[in-house]
């Protein structure tokens, strides 16, 4: 009964709450190109929500709308029950929506630890001068933030590389550091743009495990984009399927798998 | 100790002090370059503008006096008050922050994402514009800047080091202003390093320097950081302007000291704060020593004018990223 908005408990014992974010009739255009056409869906507290679709379906655009990198021409975004006005990405981040990028956006010149610490920027309230002279509130805050960051580092098993400049890390680890930075912000909603793109089977399994653990242990709501159908079906509670900017399916992995339109979009149809 | 050697030491000391002043200007370049990838040609003019404003405020000059007089036929030049140095410096710092805000919002905000060469051209435009505005605001005559810094040779040092040498050694001759400049530069660098390493804004600044998208995604406002960076550059320019202005008067050739910062940057690397310091010291000591050992005795002197540039050329050939610059490695 996943169409109702009543809270329920999943088979593996996770608590799914009310609607956290709702996208209503979103349309996004770039000049004459319509990237997203009148799409509506919601994300509920505590669930893993996947957005899938073939190349160019508008998945990343959708994620960019949620995270404020694009503002749609039409439609409304509701977050925690309130209508969200058009915002800049940094303002969205301050609302507690963290994200990762398809082609990794890290601070290459900074160490892993420093990178993850930037995720805590919005948890630092002490003034500039207090921080500079390292007194009272600022010191306490820094300690708290370090603790939160260390917890994330332990959780994602990257203790060994914490002092390494990110630029030197291999691809798979960079992806993990990016996840760590997003997590350290303790987001209400975590957006993952193709977290497993370009990884080998083993790395994919690791990443899947981390995503499930994050959801399970911290109760973080996760919306992710993924190409790999198998991965998506295992990970997510509900799936939105997009094709050519339109929504062609929405439901549990099983429902989606058996949807004729989805099968057509993924496998192709003969036109005779 | 042989007198020759002691003179050599004195030359090195003086070179170090001169180097500190070069480093001060170079620092401003590095700050902006690191955080925004803009090579700020206007940094020297920024120092000039800061010095002009400081003198103007201290002397109670009416800004745009010539313009106002020309339009309204009035004869006002001075408010008739004198502002104490400390207050004037604070006011000038405020003006530099305001200027930073204007520079970002009227110029560079609209050029985000453009090619570096376009940003560079914009800073050239900014340099000439600021020079003009400085002229219009405060007039073009040479002014003396006296914020109460000690000037002239330190006799104390001279008397107390005279015993080191023999009959014809009179002790080290070092300008007190140079010593103050060294102290101020050291404090400034420590403050900047503390700021960029340990404060939220400093961390955000380094983040923006590295990746805009990622910075946005962790909740950093790019516009705020850029205004902050220009303000810092303005502040460093103010310090450099005070030191150079006190040393050689506030005049429009002050903006040319920016050119001296170029070889410093090539030596130290465009992205390194310690590099700017060390580069400045090497150039300062290098040109004084070269003049003392080779230039004056064998080449007819005046080598200080070109030594730094030749050194920079040599560096460009053998180590283009400078001593401390980021290595240019491309992962394929």
From TrEMBL, chain A:
GO terms for molecular function: ATP binding; ATP hydrolysis activity. Keywords: ATP-binding, Nucleotide-binding, Transport. It comes from the Bacteria. It comes from Salibaculum griseiflavum. PANTHER family: ABC TRANSPORTER ATP-BINDING PROTEIN (PTHR45772:SF1), CONSERVED COMPONENT OF ABC TRANSPORTER FOR NATURAL AMINO ACIDS-RELATED (PTHR45772). SMART domains: AAA. CDD domains: ABC_Mj1267_LivG_branched (cd03219). GO terms for cellular component: plasma membrane. Residues 21-269 form the ABC transporter domain. InterPro entries: AAA+_ATPase, ABC_AA/LPS_Transport, ABC_transporter-like_ATP-bd, BCA_ABC_TP_C, P-loop_NTPase. This is ABC transporter ATP-binding protein. The keyword Cytoplasm does not apply. The keyword Acetylation does not apply.
From TrEMBL, chain B:
GO terms for molecular function: transmembrane transporter activity. One of its GO terms (cellular component) is plasma membrane. The keyword Transferase does not apply. It holds the Pfam family BPD_transp_2. It is found in: Cell membrane. Its main location: membrane. It comes from the Bacteria. One of its GO terms (biological process) is amino acid transport. The chain crosses the membrane at residues 12-33, 45-67, 79-99, 111-130, 179-199, 220-244, 264-286, 298-318. The keyword Transmembrane applies. Keywords: Amino-acid transport, Cell membrane, Membrane, Transmembrane, Transmembrane helix, Transport. It is a multi-pass membrane protein. Belongs to the binding-protein-dependent transport system permease family. LivHM subfamily. PANTHER family: ABC TRANSPORTER PERMEASE PROTEIN (PTHR11795:SF451), BRANCHED-CHAIN AMINO ACID TRANSPORT SYSTEM PERMEASE PROTEIN LIVH (PTHR11795). This is Branched-chain amino acid ABC transporter permease. The lineage of its organism: Bacteria, Pseudomonadati, Pseudomonadota, Alphaproteobacteria, Rhodobacterales.
